[in-house]
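[Q] Does anyone have a clean structure-token version of this?
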Amino acid sequence: MSMVILASSTSQLVLFILSFISKNDGVPIRSGANNLFGNEVATNICEEQSSSRWQRRTAKRRQRTEELLHSVEIGGLPVLPPLSVPSAASKSLFQTMDLGITPTLNIPPASIITWDTIHSELDPMKGGKIIAENSCNNNNNIRGTRKRGQVQAFHFILSSILNASYNAKTSQSGSGGVEGVTIIDAGCGAGNLAIALAGLLRFPTNNNGMNLNILAVDVNEEALNRLSQRVAQATTLENTHSQQFIPSQSRITTCCADLANYEYIQSHIPSHHDVIVVSLHACGAASDMAMNLAYQCNNAPFVICPCCTAKSLTRRDVNKVISNDGNNSIYNTHEQGKQNQQFFINPQASYHRSGATPDILYPRSNWLTTKLLSSASRYRDDGYALLAKVADVGLGPQTPTQQREQQRRAKRIIELDRLMSASERQYGYDTRLMRIQDQDDDPRVYSYGKGEVLLGALKGSLASNVMLRLPSV
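[A] Here you go.
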């Protein structure tokens, strides 16, 4: 009888303690040897409480993000290009404006690259070795297919500009005018885009001696060495291929420099050359530096596909003044506080490559600055930072569709901010936001988070006229 009473008392004690814990779920339970419930039970309770607190915090962040997105979107987002522009894009812009969907670049079938018929080194899958032959890794397959789609998009946009704008400009200028075009690949890496553009872009046959220079710029010297090795190897083996590698009127050169070192990069541009700045997945503030580089190059057109927006929130340390140590380190100067102040750029560190220089401030545009200031006061200080982080990864816990939707909306705002800053300049730009068509056969909309393309050209220029009329769906 005493044993039954003891068991009953112990059971009541356990129920009492559990009831007390449920009312005080913020108090952690130690999982020591003297714990009445044993280590396993106590650990499970701690994990449940920790998970519950994380879910509540995340739910609040998600709600706050939704409120911030709504406060920016209310009244409508800028439509780029303006609907008043008579273009083939207007119809699709009307169709997508209310849905908040960025138009997708629609490349005509006649302009599609037939990868099997070109020199293998121009293919980012083969030459860039993104995917090994007969690979069974589906992730590599997807990555290689996406890279082909990105190269295809850049090739079509640049071909349209070269064939229409620059060819027309050259025919009008006659002798003593523009002698060629330099396309600056800002943040080129090992050259998947630069090499393909050098080999695939062509001037019309009546180009009047025009030549094309691909200037591959990167702060990482090792990446540039790999690029040069690829070009040298392909050139050596060209006689064994039926396809031509790089046309005689084209060349590719390299420049090891931080993207913020605008004057040094400009010194590598041949005289009497027009300039176009391109950048594919230049992380963080590197995309903003690519835009600034275009401004410095006589307000050149730009075609930029940004990524890793949150990395732009890191500020470079300009207070660390050091002397040249003879290594391969890159140095740069900015006039802030001190003239000719030097700071160190570590080519291997994403922190330095992607961090913002003192002349780059966020938000980039007066449009988004005003939007954030007019929103609730708690968004004024860190509203942009929240948008930049959500644009990269979204917020959980959510379904993949919910997370992708918030990520898409935030990314669109971040990129519109960049383009609006170009439109607001003294010498304004016509700008356009588009997407590269998803290449992985995923039926979900915006399945790939790095597909936005930023297009800009000086208002009224021939390049602007071409950009505003690029076909879209």
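[Q] Thanks! Anything notable?
[A] The two ends are 82 Å apart (CA to CA).
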